[in-house]
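Complex 371.
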Amino acid sequence: MKLDIAVLSGDGIGPEVTAQAIKALDAVCHNFDHSFVFKEGLVGALAIEKTGNPLPDETLKLCVNTDAVLFGAIGSPKYDNNPEEKIRPEQGLLKLRKELDLFANIRPVKAYDSLIKKSPLKSEIIRGTDICVYRELTGGIYFGEKKLSDDGTLASDLCEYSKKEIERITHLAFKAAQKRRKKVTLIDKANVLESSRLWRKVVAAIAKEYKDVLLEFLFIDNAAMQMILNPKQFDVILTENMFGDIISDEASVIGGSIGLLPSASIGNTFCMFEPIHGSFPEATGKGIANPIAAILSAAMLLEHFELVEEAAAIRNAVEKALELNLSTPDLNPENPLTTEKVGDFIADYILNPEDSNINFENIHVGQSTII
Ligand code: IPM
Ligand code: MN
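Predicted structure with 3-isopropylmalic acid bound:
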């Protein structure tokens, strides 16, 4: 298959982790005889510095004219620490999601057997957890009208949802549940918010078309608690933009590190693949950022184009790295590998999964030729 892929590696650790995802995709191309062409675009703080715009027109054009977008991370302390800044890096990502109409953000969360002991949560609570969050991505409080009074003492953000916006992601969530354990949990705050009550009404009506899928409702505050008490109860989580942002970061603790969680942002025309983590400015350039979320986002890209075997090749390599404890300091503080070395191992393993020259024993202590 031939694919043109826009690469928007963005700020902070974005470029480091995205480079590892590209290495994995190159290895896949080599093994499966595909041709992926990577085309870079500016976004975020760097784009503001160079063009004054967090999403330059040229970048948007690139994304519209390619088959998929591979996204790194966005955000910079310069803006985080200054609420007065009017132009902010995150606006680039939000505009991109909106312009490409990427209304469904799919975030799988899995407890890897080899990492269970590394989670701060008890093994018996998290073992076997397998959740897929369907987060609405182009509506809600993120995109509603924002107001600040002239004297700067009163502010508001509007949370608005239309029936249509709720319907389209709901169908995707139910279809996904049909292929999984056939349960959808709608997370909302319907005891307080009008927009949540509309979500319940619309989702309950659609559920009737999916008789094989069980629908449950949970308030977000209870859901946040249930995620820690008994995460195995969840299969597909369906939720609006802001609740999805929060619950997925919380759920990442189950996996052992936020550095593991990939996502796919899907619309009817375009698609983008991005790790759920942020730009982690403190780690920039230090080689300590976990590249696995970015690499697994590349696997989701492959799955989107129905390259199932290719995606499995990436997943196997990631699982091997985790099994052998070939990880960055978030997962392996005693004997960490750099971002690049983890990427090298994963790309190598994709190329040669059976290679007897790879001495797995020695990899642990950093003596193998491949690291
Ligand atoms: C995410 C991020 C973004 C979001 C930020 C960077 C705007 O936290 O993708 O989860 O809030 O959606
Ligand atoms: Mn987030």
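Residues 364-371 have pLDDT under 50 and may be disordered.
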